[in-house]
Write a structure and sequence with these properties.
Layout: H1 2-5, H2 12-100
Amino acid sequence: MMAKIDGKVHLLKFQEELKTMFGLYTEGSENAATTERKIQELTDELNFMNEQIASKNRNLDETTSQKKSLHSSIEEGFSKVEVLREAEKKNRARIAEFYGE
């Protein structure tokens, strides 16, 4: 198109405007491509962070579950100790009765 315009004095102003528009178009296209790459980069980073958060939440849930299980085991152990202490008292009383008589 520019070849058809070249050399025609009456279209010189149009030619300059057309060059300016092509330059702006090229610059705008480059800016758009740069912006797209930056958006993709930030989207990838966001996805990575979301995966990390999900992983940490799973680890937190697992740790909480293990903590509950550990507390249950401790409580069960205390209950067993209490039963054994009661059995020990009864056995000592029975031994005392047996040897005391």
